[in-house]
Amino acid sequence: MPDPAIIAHGLSKAFEDVEAVRALDLKVGQGEMFGLVGPDGAGKTTTIRLLCGILRPTSGTARVLGYDLGRQVDKIKENIGYLSQKFSLYGDLTVDENIEFFAEIHGVRGFRERREELLEFTRLKPFRRRLAGHLSGGMRQKLALACTLIHTPRLILLDEPTTGVDPVSRRDFWKILSGLLREGITIFMSTPYLDEAERCSSVGLMAEGRLTAVGSPREIKARMKGDVIEVVCADTRRAAKALKAAAGLGEVQVFGDRLHIVVANAARDAARLTAVLSGAGVGPIEWRVIPPSLENVFISLLKPAPLEVDHA
Predict the structure, then answer these.
(1) What is the extent of the structural domain holding 259?
(2) What do you get for the CA distance between the two ends of the chain, in Å?
(3) Are 62 and 153 in a shared domain?
(4) Which end of the chain has a smaller Cβ tally under 10 Å, C or N?
(5) Inter-residue contact 59 to 45 (CB < 8 Å)
(6) Three-class SS of residue 71?
(7) 308 domain residue, yes or no
């Protein structure tokens, strides 16, 4: 069995009196896609920058692709690709010229064949002579990924790569990531989108610098205690207020025009739930028992500071 692509023990990072990452224990297998999810300020970016060797840990150890984070940072940087939240493309250079520039930075000789592969892979070939500053947000992200891949890394670390990207471009970006997985490249990414986390082989929930849950999406959803009842009604805000005021009903989660109520036993608690809403003058309502989603589990685990879920 191959060694893990990433293994960390007690990895921590403090900035003066702020502990950004606290005693992180983590293992990511080779060829795996790992998704790191959490609210703003959870420590996701700091974790990625630590694993890239950009930041030095305050304490703890880690090995990335078999190289020691404390002693072999240069080797790690040679073998990984890092796509930051604000990847620095050069707007006055064309698509071709940006890729060439990053090939030179990484010392890639004879890069033209690799560039052709990446342009084909990212479907940027028709735009190769367009200035990067004139590309759409989704196309810029695909170009940034091509620049990240020019030196054929074994592991890529992506910091919220699809944030602010339109849904169509986000779907295209995921098709590209699926292709990379088929090539055996390990992907470690942070994302605010729970539907993206569902596609990962393993997921970690981070809050206040700590990993609070790690496992496959199925394993994490299995941690949900109780049942989830979804309620649809005309006045969601009023319904939520009434349910939160009712003792012993369970946790109320708001999802746009729907409510998810986490109860101990749906067969027992559904009648009381409908009675509470009827007594509050909320009606008519529709309800059903649904399987728990990652959103449900993550919001429960993050109480009392719930995760802000983006359904874009």
Answers:
(1) 225-291
(2) 38
(3) yes
(4) N
(5) no
(6) coil
(7) no
Helix H segments across the chain? 44-51, 73-79, 95-105, 112-121, 137-149, 167-182, 194-197, 217-221, 236-245, 266-279, 294-301
What strands lie across the sheet with 210-215, from one edge to the other? 80-83, 155-159, 186-190, 33-37, 202-207, 210-215
Copy the structure tokens of residue 131. Answer: 């200035």
Looking at the DSSP bridge assignments, the partners of residue 229 are 261, 289
- The Cα–Cα gap between 274 and 53 comes to 54
Write 103-108 long-range contacts (CB < 8 A, 24+): 103/150, 103/151, 106/150, 106/151, 107/151, 108/150, 108/151
What pLDDT, in 10s, does the model give residues 23-59?
999 999 999 999 999 888 899 999 999 999 999 999 9
| Tokens 């084909």, located at residue | 120
Q: For residue 284, is the peptide bond before it cis, meaning its omega torsion is within 30 degrees of 0?
A: yes
CA distances for 7 relative to 26, 71, 83, angstroms: 6, 15, 20
The token duo for 180 is 């990379």
Residue range 240-294, pLDDT digits in tens: 999 999 877 788 989 888 999 999 899 899 999 999 999 999 878 899 999 998 8
Which residue matches tokens 């990379």?
180
CB-based contact 64:51 (threshold 8 Å)? yes
CATH of residue 286's domain is 3.30.70.100
* Nearest CA-CA partner of 296 in 245, 258, 262: 262
Domain CATH code at residue 184: 3.40.50.300
Residues 138 and 180 occupy one common structural domain: yes
- 193 sits in which H/E element: none
